[in-house]
Amino acid sequence: MRIRNIHLKNFRQFYGEQDIALSTDLTKNVTLIHAENGVGKTTLLNSILWTFFGVTTTKFEQRDRIVNFEAEKEGKTSASVQVLFAHEDFDYLATRSFRNTDGRHSFSVAKFGANGALEVSLSNPDAFINSVMPAAMAPYFFFDGEQAETFSGEKNRKAVAGAIRDIWGSTLIETAIEDLNFLARKFNEEIGEASGDTQIAAIEKEI
Hints:
This protein has 7 helices and 6 strands. By secondary structure, it is α+β, with helices and mostly antiparallel strands. It has a 6-stranded antiparallel β-sheet. The longest helix is centred in the C-terminal third of the chain and has 24 residues, at 170-193.
């Protein structure tokens, strides 16, 4: 995943509509954001995490106050974030919106076609995002640097290792092996209970 752009609309400190372009150059691929405390650096980080998974970092202050305070005073009741990103040679636009009148979230992911136009939104955006970035792995990519010790410490090694195994697909492989072992035992039991060569041959063919 390579994030190209973040578009914020009345999200937290960011009043109105704001765009932040990130570098996707293969050799100059680091974007540094420098600002005083309280300006919104952590909010930018959380805007991505919130868009993809509907959550924020654990120590993000007033995490339920999504809509910009000034916008609320003007009677606006919604906020949204759009994240434009590239994945496996295609561009995607992830959008999450929030209404404070009923607390509802809406989430969608649309894919750009070869002609550069947005195609129909994906039917299962949550599953797609999890295939790109498993939710269990997200805290190790999108984290508050000031709180990095919360997952880099000795006590959290197992959680980090488990998240890495998830993103590699190790858990799925282990589950498949367990299923195959279960089926092997089941077939062996059926062969042991079979009464004749014809029935045994049929079970062996099914195996």
